[in-house]
C-alpha cells in the first residue's frame, strides 16, 4: 500500500502505478488550535498490538508493507509524516518504508557554530523511530543517510533531468554552479545522449542565505546553449548568479535543471530576469516546473 503525504500526492500516485500497488486515501485535517491530524482510514486498524494487522484496500488481505511517500518541505510536512508512520505501525503492517523524495533540513548536515544542532540528524532520528527502511532522492550530501537508524538509501535521479531538455541544443555545455554538483552535470550530459557536450563547473562562495558570488570557468560559451544543473534550486540565488555570468559571455539559450525545484519566494522571477529560457525539475517537490517524475527511480529500489 502506498500512502502519501499531502505534498507528494502526484508522485505517490505515479509510484503506485509503477509498482501496481494500491494507493491509500490519506486525510489531512487541522484542529482549531492549529494541530495537524493526518490519518489513513484505508489502513483498517484492527488494533495494532492485538496482532490483527492492517488490511489491504481492495483485496482485504493483510498488508505486507506501507510505503509512505512524503517530501518534508515544511514543518507541517514533517509532523504529518510522523503521524502517517505511526498510523501504519499502529495498524500492524509488517514493514513501514519511508520515502523522502525531498528531505527537508538535509542541507543543515553539520553544526554551523557552538551551541547549534545538527538539524539533519535531529529530523532523521525522529523519522527513524517508526520506520524499517528509508529511501531519499539525491540528498545534498549522501552522508546524510548515516543519520538514520534503519538502512537509508540515496537514489540518484540526475539521469532523469535530461528528459525534458530540447532535442536541438546547439553545441551544448553542461555546467554546475559549484564543484559539488559536477557529477550531476556529467550525468545529465551523458543522459542527454548525443555523445557531445562539454561539462565544467563554476566556483561559488556563499555570503548569506540569498547572496552568492560565482566565479566563471574558462569554458567558451559564446553562442552555445548551456544547461546549468544542480541538486536543488531554493532561493534561486546560485542559479541566477551563474546565469548572469553566462549572459555576460554571449551565451546562446540557457536552461536550468535541478532534482528538487523548491523555488522559494521569488526564485522563478529571479531566474526569468536572468534570461533563463526554461526551468526543469522533478516531482520530488510538486511544482509547475516538475517536468519529470522520479517514480521509476524509486520503484527500482523497492
Ligand atoms: C548548495 O551547494 C546546493 O547545491 C545549491 O546550489 C543551493 O542549495 C541552492 O540554493 P539557492 O537556490 O538558495 O542558491
Description:
Mg(2+) 1 binds at residue 140. Pathway: Metabolic intermediate biosynthesis; 5-phospho-alpha-D-ribose 1-diphosphate biosynthesis; 5-phospho-alpha-D-ribose 1-diphosphate from D-ribose 5-phosphate (route I): step 1/1. Its EC number is 2.7.6.1. Belongs to the ribose-phosphate pyrophosphokinase family. Class III (archaeal) subfamily. Mg(2+) 2 binds at residue 178. The protein has 302 residues and is α/β, with parallel strands linked by helices. The protein has two domains: 2-156, Rossmann fold (3-Layer(aba) Sandwich), CATH 3.40.50.2020; 158-283, Rossmann fold (3-Layer(aba) Sandwich), CATH 3.40.50. It has seven helices and 15 strands. The strands form four sheets. A six-stranded parallel β-sheet has the order 9-8-12-13-14-15, with helices on both faces. Strands 1-4-5-6-7 form a five-stranded parallel β-sheet, sandwiched between helices. The two termini are 12 Å apart. The model is unreliable at 46-53 (pLDDT under 50). Residues 107, 140, 177-178, 180-181, 212, 230-238 line the site of ribose-5-phosphate (R5P). Ribose-5-phosphate is lined by residues 107, 140, 177-178, 180-181, 212, 230-238.
Amino acid at each position: 500500500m502506498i500512502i502519501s503525504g499531502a505534498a507528494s500526492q502526484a508522485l505517490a500516485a505515479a509510484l503506485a502505478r509503477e509498482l501496481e500497488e494500491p494507493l491509500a486515501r490519506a486525510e489531512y485535517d487541522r484542529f482549531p488550535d492549529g494541530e495537524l491530524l493526518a490519518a489513513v482510514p484505508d489502513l483498517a486498524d484492527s488494533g495494532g498490538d492485538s496482532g490483527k494487522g492492517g488490511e489491504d484496500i481492495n483485496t482485504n488481505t493483510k498488508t505486507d508493507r506501507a510505503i509512505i511517500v512524503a517530501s518534508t518541505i515544511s514543518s507541517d510536512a514533517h509532523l504529518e509524516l510522523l503521524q502517517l508512520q505511526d498510523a501504519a505501525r499502529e495498524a500492524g503492517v509488517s514493514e513501514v518504508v519511508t520515502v523522502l523524495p525531498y528531505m527537508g533540513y538535509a542541507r543543515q548536515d553539520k553544526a554551523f557554530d557552538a551551541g547549534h544542532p545538527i538539524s539533519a540528524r535531529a529530523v532523521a532520528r525522529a523519522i527513524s523511530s517508526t520506520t524499517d527502511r528509508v529511501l531519499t532522492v539525491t540528498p545534498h550530501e549522501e552522508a546524510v543517510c548515516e543519520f538514520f537508524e534503519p538502512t537509508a538509501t540515496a537514489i540518484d535521479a540526475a539521469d532523469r533531468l535530461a528528459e525534458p531538455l530540447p532535442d536541438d541544443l546547439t553545441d551544448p555545455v553542461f555546467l554546475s554552479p559549484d564543484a559539488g554538483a559536477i557529477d550531476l552535470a556529467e550525468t545529465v550530459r551523458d543522459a542527454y545522449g548525443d555523445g557531445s557536450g562539454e561539462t565544467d563547473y563554476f566556483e561559488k562562495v556563499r555570503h548569506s542565505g540569498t547572496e552568492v558570488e560565482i566565479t566563471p570557468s574558462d569554458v567558451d560559451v559564446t553562442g552555445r546553449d548551456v544547461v546549468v544543473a544542480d541538486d536543488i534550486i531554493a532561493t534561486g540565488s546560485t542559479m541566477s548568479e551563474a546565469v548572469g555570468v553566462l549572459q555576460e559571455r554571449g551565451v546562446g539559450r540557457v536552461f536550468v535543471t535541478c532534482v528538487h525545484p523548491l523555488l522559494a519566494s521569488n526564485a522563478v522571477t529571479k531566474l526569468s530576469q536572468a534570461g533563463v529560457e526554461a526551468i526543469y525539475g522533478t516531482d520530488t517537490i510538486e511544482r509547475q516546473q516538475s517536468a519529470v517524475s522520479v517514480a521509476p527511480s524509486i520503484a527500482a529500489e523497492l
